[in-house]
Structure formats: C-alpha cells, structure tokens
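A quick aside before the break. I want you to see a complete sequence-to-structure record at least once, exactly as it would be stored in a machine-readable document. Don't worry about memorizing anything.
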Amino acid sequence: MHLRRLLRPSIIALALAALACSRGDVAQGPRVVCVSKQINEFLYDIHAESVLVARDLTSIYPAAIRHLPSVGYHRALSAEGIISMRPTMLLTDGNLGPDAVVEQVRKVGIPVLVLAPGSTPDSAQLLMQRLGKEFHHEAQADSVVAAWKEEMHDVLRDSVQWATGRRPRVLVMHFGQMVNDYLGLKRGSTADRIVEWAGGVNAIDSTGGMLRLTPELIAKAAPDIIIATDVGFDRLGSAAKFASLPGVALTPAGKAGHVYRVDETEVMYFSARTPAVLRKIAGWLHPGATSPAQP
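That is the input. The structure line, written in tokens, reads:
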C-alpha cells in the first residue's frame, strides 16, 4: 500500500506531461491505443490504421500491426504504459482491466471509448460501420461490409447441404496463456456458431464461455474433429504430436489424426474473414463431399 501511494504521484505527473506534449498532436489527428483484437483488425480493414499508436499483446492480425508497440495483455494493463504513448483515446470493446488502471487513465484526461464487440455477424458489421464514422472512413467501412454481407449470404446458402446427415462432433481447443492450460469453447461462442454453420456439432454440451479441459473431459467429449488454435497447436509443432496429448489420443479425432490448426483470430470473433473460415472448416468436417462454391 505504501509503495502504491508513492507511485501514484509519479503516474499523475507522467500523465500530465504526456498530455501536455500531445496537445500539438491533436490537430494532426487522433492517437489511439486500442486493446481489442476485433477492433484493431477492423481498423485495418477500413484503412484507418494510421490512427493507431499502440495495441494490446493479443492483437496480432494483420501482421502489420505487430510493428506497433504493445501496452501489454488487455486484462493486465498498466496506466504508465498507456499514458507513455500520449494517446488522445483508449479504445476497447470492454474486455480490459484492471479497473483501477482504466480509472487512472480517465482521471488524467484520456477519453476511454467502449464499443460493444460484434457478437454476431450483423453486430460485427455495425461495429465496423461505427468505426468508419468515428474515424471518417465511412465509405471504406460500407464497402467492406457490403462485400462481407454478400460472401456471408453465399456461404450460408451453401451450408444448407450440411443440415442433413451425420454431423461430426467437433472440439475447439484454445490454449489459455493466462492459466497455461487448454480450454474448450462452449456452445454459444463464435467458434461454436461457425462449427454449426459448417455442419458440425460442438462436442461440449454446456453453454457460455470456455471450459478448462482435462484428459478425462477430452476423452468423454469423444470428438471426431479437433480444431486447435495457433498457440496451443504450435507449442507442440504438428498434428501428430497434438493427437498424442493425454485424452486427445483416446478420441476418434486423435486416433484418426483429424486435428487441424486455426489462428485464434479466425474463430474467437466474427470478421470479414468469417465466410472463408467457414468454408475451410466445412472442408475439414466433410472432406468427401462437394465443397461449397468459392465466392
């Protein structure tokens, strides 16, 4: 507590100095620290990335964003790191913390703009258009959304062919870096919705959020297909090694080698890439069937 009291005046002094220095930048345009993977990707989609001066640790798509400095994990931010970037705005989808840091950022005069994440394709498209209006890229946002809607319409039309017949059980495994463990994406998630559209069924029966997986739970889920996000897959290096994990080796997916890798950003939120991701996953789930026509 004593150390915290000593640090607080230095944080405020740093903030005031940073804000004073940034006054000249305001006339040149916004300086945005954005701590949302989805929003950062959308800013690049609509060619508004020039407003960004920093990102959070998990915002790694597109590759160009990695050249920006990181202010840390979005749930473990520091006021000093944000303030040092002399931002005119902290932009978030609301999934950030700790609360004390957000309060400190606001206290020193940095606006915090919270935009609801796009939890469905429709709401994600509205989010992109909202960003277009905020940063004066309305035409670019409208163009991306129009193409996205057309591709989404086409792929959902094609996905009707998977509505009948056997639907393979799919387990989407995400490696949680904060807990250093594998997590299963439950029903109702973005990944679950994509799997359903692709003609599969989530091997996890419960809904909401993620489930910490154990070898027993993985074996009991008995997935025919396992889709692993990049960090968890890459730490092992191959589908064969992933298939040998405890629990995984006992599943139909592990025994048949039906383990596939996706980037986390492909299945954790909806984006303009979602139609292509859906087609890719449908190809994994139904390899012997006729693939939906490409847009």
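Two observations worth writing down. The chain has 13 helices and ten strands. The CA atoms of residues 22 and 86 lie 6 Å apart. We'll return to this after the break.
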